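Internal tracking record. Fields below are filled automatically when a chain is submitted to the structure queue. Please do not edit lines marked as system-generated. If the sequence contains nonstandard residues, flag them in the REMARKS field before resubmitting.
Queue: standard
Priority: normal
Entity type: single polypeptide chain
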Amino acid sequence: MRLSKVKLAGFKSFVDPTVLQLPSNLVCIVGPNGCGKSNIIDAVRWVMGESSARSLRGESMTDVIFNGAANRKPVGQASIELVFDNSAGRLGGPWASYAEIAIKRLVGRDGQSGYFLNGTRCRRRDIADLFLGTGLGPRSYAIIEQGMISRIIEARPEDLRVFLEEAAGISKYKERRRETETRIRHTRENLERLDDVRGELARQLQHLQRQARAAEQYRDYRAEERRLRAELLTLRWRDLQTDLLSREQTLRQQDTALDATLAEQRRLEARLEAGRAQRLELNEAFNTAQGRYYQAGAAISRLEQYLQHQRELRRRREDEQRQIAAALEQVEAQSALDREQRDEFLAALTAAEPAMAQRLTDEADTCAALTAAETALRDGQADWENFSRRNSAAQSQTDVERTRIDHLDRQLLQTERRLERLRFEQEQLTGADLERELAELREAEQSIAEDLQRDQAQLAQIEAALSTTREARQHTDQQLQATRERLQTGRGRLASLHTLQEAALGRSAGELTEWLRVQGLTDAPRLAEQLAVGPGWEAAVETVLAGWLDAVCVADLDSPACAAEPCFGRLTLFEPPASDAVNPIAFGALAAQVQTPWPLAGLLAGVHTAADLNEVLARRADLPEGGTLVTPDGVWCGRHWLRIGRGGDDGVLAREREIRELDAVLAEDAIALDRLAEQFEQLRIRQQELDQQRRDRQQAVNQGHRDHARAQSAVQTTQARWEQACARSKALAEEQMELDEQADQDREQAQLARLRLEDELLTLNSLQTEQAELSTQRECLQDEFRQCRVRAEAARQAVTQQAAALEALQVRIAATDQALDRLEAQRQQLQARCEGLDADHAADADAPLTVAEEELADALETRLMVEAELQDARQQLESQDVELESGEQARSRCERQAELQRQQIEEQRLAFGESRVRQQNLIDQLHELDADPDTVLPTLPETAVEADWLTQLEQVERRIQRLGAINLAAIEEFAAVSERGQYLDAQNADLLEALATLETAIRKMDRETRARFRETFDQVNAGLQELFPRLFGGGQASLELIGADTLDAGVAIMAKPPGKRIGSISLLSGGEKALTAVALVFAIFQLNPAPFCLLDEVDAPLDEANVGRFGTLVSAMSATVQFIFITHNKATMAIAQHLAGVTMQEPGVSRLVEVDVEEAVRLAAV
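SYSTEM-GENERATED OUTPUT FOLLOWS
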């Protein structure tokens, strides 16, 4: 396995994609200082997983990306790819079949790296695992960079051991050992957590077992409650069914009455329909009469309008005839006036024609004189224009020079002003203010950093207090939970005791309970409840009063005794004696151990106490007649008999005592629960306050971080401004020099322009004399031309005026002729119109008007007749409307009655529907109880009453309430927790087995590591002893273990150069240290050669002789190891088979130039 090529792109100074070919085992990289040779070493270390930016000579990982140069922009990412030749299959595992392996790493401006293995994305861990045991890595002994030689030699024994571990190939064992130790630690933590969980589960099992028993009892009560509730709902359903049948009968009767009302309503509606049809016929007759009336009125209106139009037309015709006669008289008068004007215009035209001929002759003479004067003026103008051109050229040149001088003066003034501004700006660019501001900003940054540290310390204190409060709250919560569980358990026990006590005292017997309720003795106390027995004597009292403890205490025995019936079993009634009948209690009597509200002499008479059975037997013979003895454990003895009572603490009196004690304990637990709840609430409030303080302080810390970042940014900005000010000052000095040179050039050009301006001014002075002569001559010619032009203009105006007068006369004559023609035509039109009007008047006659007046009289008579018919039709229609209205009122009354009946039916149906809904709700409730009324009802007696079942249901509900809080899921939870306990037990066994397996693996890896390290140490030591004399030309060196245990012992180098004593490596010179380190590295390579070795100027501290020995050793080892070395030494370059030169022709950009030495020698030989 060897490195065949390195591909760089955007990495540090290698901005362009560059490929470094490594065709041989001796590749030398050369180049001047600072050209980027060491960047190749950094690239190899970076792609193999180096994560420290400082180790790559940077501040952050993004510093490896090309950051721009003078003529280059920054790039967005950097990438390095190493291509290995694995044709020999040195890499084992899944990579042995690959002939070429490519490892690539990318990094962007966001600082996120990506790793690729043969083009597939992978993790950094995968790259590290690939090279474990091969001697390669980001900080392995195969990469020797500048300064690393001294670090190897001066390294601590523990650090030097790492190189031998890598050579021994046990680094992967150490990595696995660390992973195994981590697994062991996690396993033990899991075991601890598992033990806690198992302990908690054991406690839960005890608690759940009690809850499961209570839940089973609760479930039985619930089943009975469901049965009673189903029967109660069935009884209610039966009552509703009876009510529904009654309502249904009522609905049918109301529907019959509604049908009768609707029939009467339909009869009335038929009568209304017939009346409406008759009204339609009457309405049609009324409309017909009304139409005839309107037609007659329209005919009358039309005749009246016709008569009025004819009279108006005759009046207009007479007015028009009078207007035409007046117009004819005006046309005749205007025609006579126009003929007189035409004769006057013809006479004036004949008189003006001779004067026109004379004016034309005068105009021809003046035009000839004007032409001669114009020719002379044109010749003089040509001379003047020639002079003007010469004068203008001289004047233009003068203006040009003046403009040039002005421009140069302005430019020179601007340059001087620019120089003044630059000098002022340079004076302002003093670095003192910026340096002072920078110092102040740094002080402010330090102050903010101190405040931030103080806030962080306060935050730590608050978090510590918060942790303490949380622990206290957790402890209080545990106590609270324990108290709640104890209280819940006690209440459950108390409910059980109450249930047992009620059963023992006869309160659960159904018939007896009903009898006591009827007698008003439901709440009457039992005798056992009124007894207060001394401690230890409960069994004795219970034995003596065995048949009296469930006696019902009554004030008067006669009344209930008379009502008692033998059908409900045993019943004991007890009437307490009067308190004034108290007799003194003898010493040793059992009555002395019993305290009651009234004396029990009648029940405990003659009963004395004894300590034990022996005393009873001893005193039995001395007992009086009727006297007895009883022991605390319930042995009751007479003179001739002996009775042994029940033992234990399950007696009625003992149970009553336990109930009282349990009530007291539960009261104390309730008080403790309230106290713990209050304490828990205080701790919760305290935790909330601390949380709020922590959040506030955390915000202050975050704000401090932001302020600190802003302060750092301000410092960096001010630093950049200071650097920019320095650069600007330098640029201003250069610009001032350029402006000074420009000002000197402008002054020289201005002086030359002023000389040229003086020459042009002399030329202008000589032209001024010639200008005066030409100006005089030009003025004379212009005067003569003006006079000729005035005379010609006067003659031309006279001709024009005479021609205009002649033309005006001709126009007037033509206009007069046209006016005469127009008046003639107008006269003819007026005469024709007058003749037409006469014809129209003759055609008109009075006959049509007479006929129209007769038709109008007939139309008036017809309208009177139609109006009488219309009045008769209106009266018939109104009488029919009155009849329809009365019928409509009768129908409305019938409709209201039907609506009322419908409302009654609707109300009845709503009530029926509500009963149906209630019955359906009952059925739904029965279905929820998995019951059906048809199946439940046959099981009930016919005399069943809802009140009886309600009483029984209340009794069952009270029993359920006495059970207290019940965990219904306790049975399933108990089974689930039991199963989980078994599972956790199995897990515990598995973890213990896994822990033993991991510890065995640790011991095995330790043995393997010790053996391999010891073997490697001996081989490297032997190699160092062999190579050291070869490099030094004599002397000796060896390795020593520092420490007793080979597993973690350090390694030290002992060296003795020729002529010196054996001593510490730190006493050697720089060159001796370098050769010793090279000997150690090469000894490691002999044992476990890495695929390649990178040497960065390792030969720098060596002299010429040592360089020769170093080169000989490298050449010899290149048979098995690929060497890539950077050097400035020609002797080292001479051993290379391939040279790669790094240049930096473009500032900040590195390039490669490669030379195959053998090929170059072959070409040189040719």
